[in-house]
Design goal:
heterodimer; A: 260 residues; B: 262 residues; alpha/beta; 10 strands
């Protein structure tokens, strides 16, 4: 546990000291602030639309942040050869993967927390109320979904040689799931035979990031949030799915030759 | 009677790699290597480029799995991470997390070894003094010169006060002062009774520091023995002896060059 913690701390330090991490962060904050400050046609309901746009921006930013930071982790370790002195110590490859996962996921969580806090403050300034419980659930589900994205990018960094190809594929898969996953069963119903079964299988096998994504609607339209059992199950699903992806990454990485 | 056990041992170690260029698509990097390094020795691991030195180190450190045979550190199979608890390793080209300071880098590695906090700080102070980086401990590694980075590398290899040091060409690419400093550190470690296993192309340096050497050529162990014995046997310095052992004949090379020029 100490080793995983130590590796995660190094990942966090890297992100704190890298300047590109702040660019996305400041950009998202600025756009949210601008959208929150403008007044269009004196329409009070405009706040809902602005919130929708801001939440979409937060989702895109968090995906970019999670995928780009995770995709480069193992690749940078190999390219800069820091992996050799590290694995020459009593560090197993499983610990290395878990440390990288923990570091990236915690960093995403911290930035996501700031995003939601900022969005909450801006929205509250327009709506004169803040549903802390709803924002907390939205944040937790979003962070849970990011665990799957981080684990997917980590698996990708074992499979793909270049971080750019890994990042691009992960981003397309994640956005594809967010936009299309919930419609797949309807599509499967309209298909006959093997193709229909395959589409159904994909529908049940996909990590349902869209669950967390759809929670935006509750924040925008002030609908009551789903109960504890519902979102706890979703979090459990995300946790289990992330564990499976990390296990797959370890199975591929554990015996791979690393030549100095 | 106590029999001294080797702290580094390989038994019939064989490593094969898939290669399109090699006959049969398989390149044999190591062929049945048997080595034993005993406590307190400074052991030089020599061979021309491509001889299999780094491959051997890669197996010892668990980076590459042997195709056949076994390797042990302190009696533990190198496949187990625990085998690396009492070793320090310095890779040939040293790159570290450049965004960390030397102090942070050492703290990170010390945490991996579960060194208690109070002892950790003392150990960091001691190794930074030993490698003469105490004055630059709070500077990020990206601001270090190559020699300083190599010494930071030595510091990380020493953070756990290892009983065995594995150094892959520790003086490669350093200027004469940097080389001298690294050599002095190895000498000091030798005086402290540490076991050092290192590869080098600087045969004069090897002759000065090492007790025993192993000479590898094309994945095969050609010679293993005390430096003094090899030098006496060939009645020349270690460099000449090395060239003869690997079958390199300078006269033949010279005449080939002359005939080509003619």
């Amino acid at each position: 546990m100490n080793t995983i913690h130590a590796i995660a701390i190094v990942v966090l330090k890297e992100m704190i000291r890298r300047k590109d991490f702040y660019v996305l962060f400041i950009l998202t904050a600025l756009i949210t602030l601008l959208m929150g400050s403008i007044n269009i046609f004196n329409d009070a309901s405009i706040a809902g639309y602005l919130k929708e746009l801001a939440l979409l921006l937060v989702w895109i930013s968090s995906l970019v942040m999670a995928i780009t930071t995770t995709a480069r982790q193992l690749h940078a370790e190999k390219e800069l050869r820091t992996i050799f002195p590290l694995l020459a110590k009593p560090v197993s490859r499983a610990q290395l993967l878990l440390g990288k996962f923990a570091g990236c996921w915690i960093a995403c969580g911290v930035s996501l927390f700031v995003f939601y806090l900022f969005l909450g403050i801006v929205a509250a300034s327009r709506e004169h109320s803040l549903d802390v419980g709803a924002y907390t659930v939205a944040f937790l589900l979003h962070w849970g979904a990011l665990a799957v994205v981080v684990a997917m990018a980590l698996l990708g960094s074992v499979v793909f040689a270049a971080p750019s190809s890994n990042g691009t594929i992960c981003f397309i898969v994640a956005v594809g799931i967010l936009v299309l996953a919930r419609h797949l069963n309807t599509v499967a119903l309209q298909m006959d035979g093997v193709m229909g079964k395959i589409t159904y299988a994909i529908y049940y096998l996909l990590p349902r990031l869209d669950w967390a994504f759809s929670v935006r609607q509750f924040l925008i339209f002030h609908d009551p949030m789903p109960g504890f059992a519902v979102w706890a199950q979703a979090l459990l699903f995300y946790g289990s799915y992330s564990a499976l992806l990390i296990l797959a990454a370890w199975l591929l990485f554990r015996r791979r030759a690393l030549t100095t | 009677m106590n029999i001294v056990q080797p702290i580094l041992k390989t038994e019939n170690l064989r490593v094969e790699f898939r290669s399109k260029d090699a006959p049969g698509g398989v390149k044999v990097a190591l062929q049945g290597l048997n080595l034993a390094v005993f406590p307190g020795e400074v052991f030089g691991f020599l061979g021309p480029n491509g001889a299999g030195k780094t491959t051997t180190m890669n197996v010892l450190l668990g980076f590459v799995n042997a195709t056949a045979g076994d390797a042990f550190l302190f009696g533990e199979n190198v496949r187990e991470p625990i085998a690396r608890q009492r070793i320090g390793y310095l890779p040939e080209l040293t790159y570290y997390y450049k965004f960390l300071t030397a102090e942070e880098l050492l703290r990170f590695y010390a945490r991996i070894f579960n060194i208690p906090k109070a002892e950790r700080e003392k150990r960091i102070d001691a190794v930074l003094k030993l490698v003469e980086l105490d004055h630059a401990r709070k500077r990020q590694i990206k601001t270090y010169s190559k020699g300083m980075q190599q010494r930071a590398g030595l510091a990380q290899a020493l953070i756990n006060n290892p009983d065995l040091l594995i150094l892959d060409e520790p003086t490669s690419g350093l200027d004469p002062i940097g080389r001298m400093k690294v050599r002095e550190i190895i000498q000091r470690l030798k005086n402290e009774g540490k076991t050092v296993f290192f590869s080098s192309h600087e045969l004069g340096e090897v002759e000065t520091i090492c007790d025993r050497v192993a000479i590898l050529h094309q994945g095969e162990l050609k010679r293993e023995g005390r430096v003094a014995d090899i030098v006496r046997e060939y009645n020349c310095d270690l460099e000449q002896a090395f060239l003869r052992i690997i079958g390199f004949m300078p006269q033949a090379a010279d005449s080939a060059l002359v005939s080509k020029a003619a």
